[in-house]
Amino acid sequence: MKKIIVTGGAGFIGSNFVHYVINNHPGVHVTVLDKLTYAGNADNLKGLPNNRYELVVGDISDAELVNKLVSDTDAVVHYAAESHNDNSLEDPFPFVQTNILGTYTLLEACRKYGVRYHHVSTDEVYGDLPLREDLPGNGEGEGEKFTAETPYNPSSPYSSTKAGSDLLVKAWVRSFGLQATISNCSNNYGPYQHIEKFIPRQITNVLSGIRPKLYGEGKNVRDWIHTNDHSSAVWAILTKGRIGETYLIGADGEEDNKTVIELILELMCQPKYAYDHVTDRAGHDLRYAIDSTKLREELGWKPEFTDFKSGLADTIKWYQENEDWWKAEKAQVEAFYANKGQ
Ligand code: NAD
Ligand code: DAU
Which residues does UniProt call coiled coil (predicted)? Predict the structure, then answer.
């Protein structure tokens, strides 16, 4: 694989993958296709050698542009998406446009030119799991995590459009023989994550003198993985995964939101309870948890960043040291939430 296209490569996880590929695989050239929406930032690619990558600013729904780029590549790794649940509850349309029609446009181009395709998706397509405390024996038995066999049951406009895009990929594999794989990953954290998301919102709240905001009681559980580990997993699937297969990516990082917010406050030397409970998210998924046995056993992948507290401390340090990256957007993000009582 000498030339790859990374869609959404100027966003949080996509840019991490571009850094990962350029730093670890010297023979690979990356074309980033990114619309630079509010969530994309060309600075996320700053410092990378110019001869190793090119940024093409454009829309994945633009068939002419997509065909031109795909006709001259070995693989497409598709990260571009509208990615935030809270935005999808306010206006689902861009989610349908980018996540479904954009994916369709890429699939058709890869079919036309016989190009390898990897689809980056989310564990949210499976809906949610009950909280462990509500399960017999505190959920220690079998079947309490998502696997590739779990039925799709998405809850939000965001997750339903991601589920729809996954199903398009499966159909293109079966009906047209597309050379594709799918990965469904749990919640990522790390540097360059947009401050609308839970962890960076709370860190930048503290840095801005605003009390962190916890939805509802904060019992909801997310399965945290460092974004570097997501990147190494996607590379393993792209290069060694079996065509037509789905791999779940996770690092056994389950934490409830209340614990995470209190840990952020502790790491930032604030009183443990200096946060507000705010209006809960509509349709708020209770718990995500990934069983990544298939990925680990078949492809030999394992996560490196398994100490959540130290990963979080490094992430806090990054937002402290990179105020210029997030400061200008803070007031607008908080105004959006304040309007919703969050
Ligand atoms: P992000 O919102 O930070 O970045 C999305 C990127 O896509 C941005 O650079 C944006 O400019 C670009 N983009 C949006 N619409 C586009 C369009 N029409 N054409 C071209 N580019 C467009 O998102 P993220 O958190 O980095 O997520 C990336 C992918 O990973 C998404 O597909 C998401 O569903 C998936 N994912 C995210 C997580 C997570 O925890 N954030 C977990 C699992 C899977
Ligand atoms: O599971 C993978 C998904 O993880 C990805 O597909 C999504 O793109 C990504 O955004 C993320 O979705 P979540 O909705 O889980 O992430 P978010 O950061 O928005 O919220 C994490 C949890 O924190 C969730 O239970 C809601 C809660 N929350 C969020 C915000 C923004 C709060 O309690 N307070 C907040 O201010």
Answer: none
Task: Confirm if 130 and 286 have CB atoms less than 8 A apart.
Answer: yes
No. of H helices and E strands in the chain?
12, 13
Asked whether the CA dihedral 162, 336, 13, 248 is positive or negative, the reply is negative
Distance 35 CA to ligand 2 centre (A): 23
CATH fold for domain 3-194+225-254+285-308:
Rossmann fold (3.40.50)
Which one from 86, 123, 254, 285 is the annotated catalytic residue? 123
Let me know: does 187 contact 223? Beta carbons within 8 Å: yes
Taking only the tens place, the pLDDT of each residue in 163-193 is 999 999 999 999 999 999 999 999 999 999 9
pLDDT digits (tens, 9 = 90+) for 44-78: 999 999 999 999 999 999 999 999 999 999 999 99
For a mutational test of ligand 2's pocket, the pick from 87, 197, 220, 264, i.e. the residue with the most ligand atoms closer than 8 A to its C-beta, is 197
Among 34, 82, 108, 124, the active-site one is: 124
